[in-house]
Amino acid sequence: MEKRNTTLNDPEYRKLFKKNYRAKLTPKVWQKDFGDAYVMESPDKSMIGKSFVDIANERQQDPVDTFLDIVVEMDKEILWETTLGNTDPAKYKNLYNDENGILGFADSGAHINNMAFYNNPLRVLRYVMASHEKGEPIMSYEKIIWRLTKENADFFNLDAGYLAIGKRADITILDPEKLDDSVHEYHTDAFLAGCDRLVNRNDEVVEYVMINGKLAWEMGAFTPAFGKERFGEFLKGKHEYREKKEEQGQPQEEKVLA
Q: Which residues, in sequence order, are bridge partners of residue 206?
């Protein structure tokens, strides 16, 4: 941490940080706006609920310097949140109906610690339900369920995503009366020894989850067998190049999609 703080206090590093922060059109994983990054927890209780820009204005300081000073001073005692994108519900209708988008496909598992992306499909369902409640439906319930299940399987050429005789019994049963705005809230949850992760969750809305015909989740909790027995498996995608090689009798690479 001492070496990190030396770096964060280095004027040349801060100069480079400010240049990158102000270059709004460069590639980024967040919107680069300390005015939309709000303190949730802090040893200094007067900071809670304020953005780093608010605090910088109070200190008569550049927001980057304020942010880095606070990180050096408080380290893990400071907790802040921001919304990475899609903050305007008025634009959801176009986004959700864009045929180039794959709504059920997210990078949830790529951000274990500090990005609460874990229930993207439930949040999408909630946004659609809320639009119906307002009398301004984004799309039908049937379409959004298709977009979150069958459409994904078809896109990746996987034998999944269908409720039909002979298909894989990967089934999730939800209670729509419990699908409320609580799915947007984030919580900390134990992950690995000494390490928590951020998650969006509402355990009660999901009544049952079956993985390949085996009950994995029931009424707010994992079943005793989950984590002890094998449930899922890798699904092989059926692709044009594979089928052509099979027709020609050529050996083929074994590729799988999780």
A: 174
